[in-house]
Specification:
- The complex is a heterodimer.
- Helices cover 41% and strands 17% of the residues of chain A.
- By secondary structure, chain A is an alpha/beta fold.
- Chain A has one domain: 2-enoyl-CoA Hydratase, Chain A, domain 1, CATH 3.90.226.10.
- In chain A, strands 1, 2, 3, 4, 5, 6, 7 and 8 form an eight-stranded mixed sheet that branches.
- Chain A is globular and about 50 Å long.
- Chain B contains nine helices and eleven strands.
- In chain B, the strands form three sheets. In chain B, strands 3-6-7-8-9-10-11 form a seven-stranded mixed sheet, sandwiched between helices. Chain B has a two-stranded antiparallel ribbon with strand order 1-2. In chain B, strands 4-5 form a two-stranded antiparallel sheet.
- In chain B, α6 links the parallel β9 and β10.
- In chain B, α4 packs parallel to α5.
- The chains are: A alpha/beta, B alpha/beta.
- Chains A and B meet through α6, α7, α8, α9 and α10 of A and β4, α4, α5, α6 and α7 of B.
């Protein structure tokens, strides 16, 4: 399971030290992706959405602050926006479990995605999580079932789905809201089956070998594009999104609108089969 | 993704191991033949030992009806992955040599109580039953086969989760397999998921939890995150029965816990209810 990023104080030291992109190691990118100063979900919402009306709760037990959902106006588009919330302050970090969702979060997202489908609204998701929350209540309430159901549910949605990996794409907790028709990824985001630290702990028997694991796992945007997991990479301002959140958000908005435009004209009923085709091609070999 | 954490086992395996099975739970010495004849269940404490994929397929199929399919689909080293102890290719080839299987799931056609089914059984001995691209592809093909021939789908899982040596593409197999079993269910066919010891991480969080019916055996370990990861996160001890089949049933995530001797009959009965 992924380690949580350090909460406070906010700092940009890692970004400041970043080398030119060609020389960046995978671990440098991991640090950028986790930088607490990187724009959070509400930073993007503020910049991108003319309106955002948050809707709460899974109608079962809880409102998970780690996964924020609501209807949003992005440029000319009305969409359902769901995104991980790491929180910008220590209080928010704690309330949102540093963006690690509980089953309640995925169930809330599914409830609202069904509503979006009913009213023919596209779904846009922003992914930024160390992973699903590893807790006792999470297991009791069916973390595995919630993630499995969310993955299955998104695959079968009869409406366009655009997913943006904005920061940390941490394993099943990320994939649970990242099954879409277009997968976009910010230049300094990462997306991985396991955290570099977790992988190093198991395969290197030494968590300190995380940089080696990060490189071996191929978790950066260019690698993932090559592997066919990511459709396009959203460029970040020099030094990373945290250096110029406004510019980063503008690039995200442009990319999301372009991806939605590509999906125009597809009959809603066709999306599940198209999505199955997309994901079943991943890792297929002759 | 949590990786399966091996439970504590006695440090020394006595030389008698060749002739005896030692029950991991009650430590009883059971003659190997008696152990096998009893379905790898401890005759003293009813511990349900782990089965190889082929043993599981034999257990559930009518005698002689299981026919393997998609054996040609094996692992793929998309990342040219290597870690401290060497390349992934060497490890997976060693697993092939050790188990005789070419992926972590065995797939094929079989009859159960005379009903033709599409049957999959994971092998925990093959790299911890991890979900690789070959595993995902076999499951997808098994689902297509079930749909083509209008057969019920039965998958027995046993896995620590995603196969990290195949990186992000192993994670994507969760989406691929979830969509594949969904297609089977949407086609009006039943999908019966048998969660066997252990089923955790990316397998429990994808196709294994998505059965029309989710059944399991007594005291099976089933969960998402590993116990140690959770204990380190919440800094408190977890109950002894945490993430067992019984715990799952109590919390509403398993339809039934079925003794191994009754497993096939239970599935066949379900299929009868579904009109097969």
């Amino acid at each position: 399971m992924a380690k949580t990023s350090k909460a406070a104080p906010r700092r940009t030291a890692s970004a400041g030290k970043a080398k030119p992109s060609a020389a960046k190691s995978a671990m440098d990118v991991v640090k950028l992706a986790r930088d607490p100063a990187r724009p959070h979900i509400f930073d993007y919402i503020r910049e991108i959405c003319a309106d955002f009306t948050e809707l709460h709760g899974d109608r079962l037990v809880n409102d998970d602050r780690a996964l924020v959902c609501g209807f949003a106006q992005i440029g000319p588009r009305k969409v359902l926006l769901c995104g991980h919330n790491k929180g910008a302050t220590v209080e928010e970090n704690m309330a949102a479990n540093f963006g690690m969702a509980n089953p309640d979060g995925y169930r809330k997202a599914m409830r609202l995605m069904a509503l979006a489908e009913k009213f023919r609204l596209p779904v846009v998701t922003f992914v930024d999580t160390p992973g699903a929350y590893p807790g006792r209540e999470a297991e009791e309430r069916g973390q595995a079932e919630a993630i499995a159901k969310s993955i299955e549910f998104m695959g079968a949605l009869k409406t366009p789905v655009v997913c943006v990996i904005t920061g940390e794409g941490g394993s099943g907790g990320a994939l649970a809201v990242a099954v879409g028709d277009r997968i976009l990824m910010l230049e300094n985001a990462v997306y991985s089956v396991i955290s570099p630290e977790g992988c190093a702990g198991i395969l290197w028997r030494d968590g300190a070998k995380a940089p080696e694991a990060a490189a071996a796992l191929k978790i950066t945007a260019p690698d993932l594009k090559k592997l066919g997991v990511v459709d396009s990479i959203i460029p970040e301002p020099a030094g990373g999104a945290q250096k110029n959140p406004k510019a980063a958000a503008a690039a995200v908005k442009k990319a999301v609108l372009a991806a939605l435009a590509e999906l125009d004209g597809i009959a809603p009923a066709d999306f599940p089969a198209l999505r199955y085709g997309k994901f079943s091609a991943m890792g297929r070999f002759a | 993704m949590s990786w399966y954490v091996k439970p504590e086992t006695p440090a020394k395996i006595p030389p008698a191991k060749a002739l005896w099975e030692i029950c991991p739970r009650c430590r009883a010495y059971v003659p190997r033949k008696e152990w096998k004849d009893n379905g790898s269940i401890c005759p003293r404490c009813n511990y349900h030992g782990r089965l190889k994929a082929r043993e599981r397929a034999e257990l559930l199929s009518d005698a002689g009806t299981f026919k393997e399919m998609f054996r040609e689909v094996s692992y793929s080293d998309h990342l040219s992955f290597r870690d401290a102890s060497g390349p992934y290719v060497e490890k997976v080839e060693a697993a092939i040599g050790k188990t005789g299987e070419t992926e972590s799931i065995l797939t094929g056609s079989a009859a159960m109580g005379g009903i033709p089914v599409a049957l999959g059984a994971m092998d925990f001995a093959f790299m911890g039953g991890s979900l690789g691209t070959g595993t995902g592809e076999r499951i997808a093909r098994l689902c297509e086969f079930a749909m083509e021939e209008r057969r019920p789908l039965v998958i027995c899982s046993a896995s620590g989760g995603a196969r990290m040596q195949e990186g992000i593409l192993s994670l994507m197999q969760m989406a691929k397999t979830a969509a594949a079993v969904r297609r089977v269910k949407d086609a009006g066919l039943p999908y019966i998921s048998v969660l066997t010891d252990p089923t955790t991480g990316g397998v429990s969080a994808s196709f294994a939890m998505l059965g029309d019916i989710n059944i399991t055996e007594p005291r099976t370990l089933i969960g998402f995150a590993g116990r140690r990861v959770i204990e380190n996160t919440i800094r408190q001890k977890l109950p002894a029965d945490f993430q067992t089949a019984e715990y799952l049933l109590d919390h509403g995530f398993a339809d039934s816990i079925v003794e191994r001797r009754e497993l096939k009959a239970f599935i066949v009965k379900m299929l009868h209810y579904f009109g097969f």
